[in-house]
Design goal:
single chain, 558 residues, alpha/beta, FAD/NAD(P)-binding domain, 2 domains, eight-stranded mixed β-sheet, five-stranded parallel β-sheet, 24 strands, globular, disordered N terminus, binds flavin-adenine dinucleotide
């Protein structure tokens, strides 16, 4: 018996059928099931297969790329410069050439297609396959994983690479369903590009996505209205086109660069300088800030004085430089005060810093206006547009709701995961997240995740995290095989110690002083807690290494 879902046939009751062109039997038993086809999942599928395991990858989308599969909105591009933002395998990087220093979403998708071909991944990948639930079977020491309208799979290891952005968030403004125009979350951007030329367009939200969208749409929209709740302290990107095929960093230097990503606080090849803001004279400081500013990338954020994220005065100094630079780019005094206020709105760098390409200049255009949601919030959505609290109805053909995600934990808690008790992961984390090493949870044996809570995650370059965490997970799997073990489980005491460490590090920084998704603030009812490990990649890497050397201390192996 077969059933067709999204044009895909799958097996029911144990009959082997073809899913996405690959043979899969219901309740097929695997060494590992990898969920998610972004950097994390793809790296693990490749590594585990190289080690000879029987492994499959399932992905709810129809192709590789993870966030770059979903995010096709105008202007979507990565803020991590290449070659940092790619896999470290010479088989890939020796032949792949990028067109730009910060590639756009379509180029990143092309890169994933190339990687999938080189690594021959498709034969072990099931697309259109959303994991709904996973249940631990204590007798068998295996996970039973159910997919929506698809096969059920059994695996010794459940490896979740569901990313930080799998659960979209739209505020529940009254009347959204009554809007007669197009309402879209940018990560569900239609594959058939809508024609926005001359249209009345709203972009709600000025996170990284909002900034990128607004910059691009200001060029085509008849009128663009940007709704800003919080100023984005965005930095100049300094894009470079590699039109002649020459990449900025020569290929022979790549391997060393990849090897040293783990030595950088944020997984790139730069670090905070071992100098306080006040070690320099005011003139030296201006010169140093300017040099970082000119380099573009995240350097003004993550290659600056070491005390910038930790002391309010140092942070304010960094803000003031940013503010003066930015205000000089905006002509209208009122808009200057909304976009780059004289008074620092929040700690610099404690919300995700975005990179921009002439974003602030769009507000000098006659077809662009800005609504300050701090003083004039959205009250409701009408048939024709958005009503703000001052009573104005702003009319739109299309509203792009760039309001982000239930970030970092939402993708994991959306799956009904039950471990050694009947309590789901969502219930387990109801009052706060608890993990060991930001990769595993007590009561959920043989389950690991990457780019999740209590790890460097959003403060770390994506591929760096994917490889560091993925390699560590593969080592655990190998260790279990060599020692003929069935079950690896977090000890509750090590989990408690890790949570304390997360808070301790966060409290040393300015992070808790700022409302952001790093602290769970953007989702009503979400516990307020640091979702990110602030010790930096080198310390995190060493902690993982030590844990492995000590025979996986903090874990019970049986
Ligand atoms: C708009 C945007 C811009 C970003 N820019 C940067 C940047 O500049 N630099 C940087 O380092 N990082 C950036 N990131 C972070 C980015 O998430 C990482 O760089 C990297 O892509 C993480 O890879 P991943 O494999 O962990 O997750 P993802 O790329 O998010 O992939 C996860 C995949 O899992 C799938 N999935 C989720 N749940 C299920 C389920 N239940 N069943 C089946 N499949 C599922 C999803 O469909 C998705 O394809 C950005 C993220 C976003 C959203």
């Amino acid at each position: 018996m077969t059933a067709a879902v999204h044009g895909v046939n799958h097996a029911i009751n144990g009959v082997t059928e073809k899913v996405n062109g690959i043979h899969i039997s219901n309740e097929q038993e695997l060494d590992a099931l990898v969920v998610g086809a972004g950097f994390g999942g793809v790296w693990q599928l490749k590594r585990l297969r190289d080690e000879g395991y029987n492994v499959k990858l399932v992905e709810s989308g129809t192709d590789y790329g993870g966030v770059w599969y979903w995010n096709r909105y105008p202007g979507a591009r990565v803020d991590s410069a290449i070659p940092h933002y790619e896999f470290s395998d010479p088989l890939l990087y020796k032949e792949w050439s990028w067109k730009q220093r910060f590639p756009d979403s379509s180029e990143l998708r092309a890169y994933f297609t190339y990687a999938a071909k080189k690594w021959d991944l498709r034969k072990d990948t099931l697309f259109n396959t959303y994991v709904e639930s996973a249940t631990w079977d204590e007798q068998e020491s295996k996970w039973t994983v159910k997919t929506k309208d698809g096969p059920t799979l059994k695996a010794k290891f459940l490896l979740l690479n569901t990313g930080f952005a799998a659960k979209r968030y739209t505020p529940d403004w009254p009347g959204i369903e009554s809007f007669k125009g197009t309402w879209v979350h940018p990560s569900f951007w239609p594959h058939d590009e809508p024609d926005l030329m001359g249209k009345k367009v709203a972009v709600i939200g000025t996170g990284s996505t909002g900034v990128q969208l607004a910059t691009d749409l200001a060029k085509v929209a008849g009128h663009l209205t940007v709704f800003q709740r919080t100023p984005n302290l965005a930095l100049p990107m300094r894009q470079v086109d590699y039109t002649n095929g020459d990449q900025e960093i020569p290929r022979p230097e790549y391997q060393s660069l990849f090897d040293h990503r783990k030595d950088s606080f944020s997984g790139f090849s730069f670090n905070f300088v071992p100098k306080s803001t006040w070690d320099d004279t005011p003139e030296q400081r201006q010169e140093f800030y300017q040099s970082l500013w000119d380099k573009g990338d995240f350097q003004y954020w993550l290659a600056t004085y070491y005390d910038m994220l930790f002391t309010p005065e140092a942070n304010k100094e960094a803000y003031n430089f940013w503010r003066d630079k930015t205000r000089a780019r905006v002509k209208n005094d009122k808009l200057k005060d909304i976009l780059a206020p004289m008074e620092q709105p929040h700690a610099f760098g404690c919300k995700r810093i975005s990179l921009e390409n002439k974003y602030f200049e769009i507000f000098n255009q006659p077809n662009v206006s800005l609504v300050d949601m701090k003083t004039n919030p959205i009250e409701s959505v009408t048939e024709t547009g958005i009503r703000t609290c001052d009573g104005t109805v702003h009319e739109f053909d299309i509203v792009i709701c760039a309001t982000g995600y239930d970030a970092i934990t939402g993708g994991l808690t959306s799956i009904d995961i039950r471990g050694t008790t009947d309590q789901t992961l969502k219930e387990t984390w109801k009052d706060g997240t608890a993990t060991n090493l930001g990769m595993s949870v007590s009561g959920f044996p043989n389950m690991f995740f990457t780019y999740g809570p209590q790890a460097p995650t959003a403060l770390c370059n994506g591929p760096t995290c994917a490889e560091i965490q993925g390699d560590w997970i593969v080592d655990v799997v190998n260790h279990m095989k060599v020692k003929d073990l069935k079950k690896v489980e977090v000890e509750i005491e090590s989990q408690k110690a890790w949570a304390e460490n997360i808070w301790k590090l966060a409290n040393m920084s300015l992070l808790p002083s700022t409302k952001s998704w790093y602290m769970g603030d953007n989702i009503p009812g979400k516990p307020r807690e640091p979702l990110i490990y602030l010790g930096g990649v080198p310390t995190y890497y060493k902690t993982l290494e030590d844990c492995a050397k000590e025979g996986y201390s903090g874990f019970k192996l049986s």
